[in-house]
Design goal:
Elements: H1 2-14, E1 21-23, H2 25-38, H3 51-66, H4 85-100, H5 104-117, H6 123-145, H7 151-161, H8 163-166, H9 172-185, H10 202-209, E2 213-215, H11 217-224, H12 234-254, H13 258-267
Antiparallel strand pairs: 1-2
Helix pairs in contact: 1-12, 2-12, 3-4, 3-6, 3-9, 4-5, 5-6, 6-7, 12-13
């Protein structure tokens, strides 16, 4: 898993001498106790799918994952027509129900029209990333369903065929895509013990809330005052790097895989009213 190991290596290098974020081992220990008390959240559906159904679901997830980023400019209440991840995935699902059985071209065209009509932010980037899926999805989805490639080969193929998935140095949306396959189909459970968590907004917020990450006063003030962090800035990269390393520790100490650790924090995000850091990016 050379590519995945490179993400951990990158995160560790950012955290060699951090300015803004520290990993709190006591907070990790306390959080492990909370997690083990709760137990991992059940994700995998007990259902058998035909190859056609698998193709349909995977293409939905692949397309939605390609454009699952940045729904606002600034604070989370500033959204054109209340754009959100739920609204975006509904556009994908509705387009799939209308067209995917008979017409791939119309499926993708419908999504692009709806995203434009509903004024999703970073529209040009989203259209570009949808076009990447439209042009190359057969080369990826067929070997995925037929189990013709290893996990590492598929991960590598994904970022080669779909540059939008590769644009993030921490490969957030790529790791999340394979976690969704685990949650839906139960695939790659063993491999998900080696993968990094998807480092975005909510997981760092929850790690800080549970005391696993300590933010400097300067960083806390910037987040609380809704300042925008440039993509690739030291502060933004430390937040994401520390999240990846902290969650790796949580995986090791609980015995859970990355999808289970990520899911535990995601499902608890409403318990916390901490603000999260803001970055206008296609990474997350």
């Amino acid at each position: 898993m050379e590519i995945i190991e490179s993400v951990f290596d990158l995160a560790n290098r950012f955290m060699e001498d951090p300015e803004y974020v520290l990993i709190n081992e006591d907070g990790i220990k306390e959080t492990v106790s909370k997690m083990l008390k709760d137990g991992p959240m059940p994700f995998t559906e007990k259902k058998t799918y035909t190859d056609f159904e698998k193709h349909y679901i995977i293409l939905e997830q692949l397309t939605g994952g390609a454009i699952n980023y940045c729904y606002w400019y600034g604070t989370s209440n500033i959204r054109p027509l209340d754009c959100s991840s739920s609204k975006m995935f509904k556009v994908v699902e509705d387009s799939a129900k209308q067209y995917l059985i008979q017409d791939f071209h119309s499926f993708f065209s419908k999504i692009k029209r709806e995203l434009a009509k509903q004024r999703f932010p970073l529209l040009e980037e989203r259209i570009k990333h949808i076009n990447e899926i439209q042009d190359n999805h057969y080369h990826f989805v067929t070997p995925l369903i037929k189990k013709e490639k290893s996990f590492n080969e598929l991960f590598t193929m994904m970022i080669e065929l779909f540059p939008g998935y590769a644009s993030d140095m921490f490969l957030k949306r790529a790791s999340l895509f394979f976690m969704m396959l685990y949650r839906i189909f139960g695939w790659y459970e063993e491999e998900l013990h080696q993968i990094h968590i998807p480092a975005d907004y909510q997981v760092p917020k929850m790690l800080n809330y549970f005391g696993c990450l300590d933010y400097s006063p300067e960083l806390k003030e910037a987040i609380t005052s809704n300042q925008l962090f440039p993509k690739g800035s030291q502060a933004e990269c430390e937040i994401r790097s520390a999240s990846i390393i902290a969650c790796q520790k949580l995986c090791q100490k609980t015995g859970w895989n990355a999808a289970e650790v990520d899911g535990w924090f995601w499902l608890k995000r409403k318990e916390c009213n901490f603000p999260f850091h803001l970055t206008v990016t296609t990474d997350y």
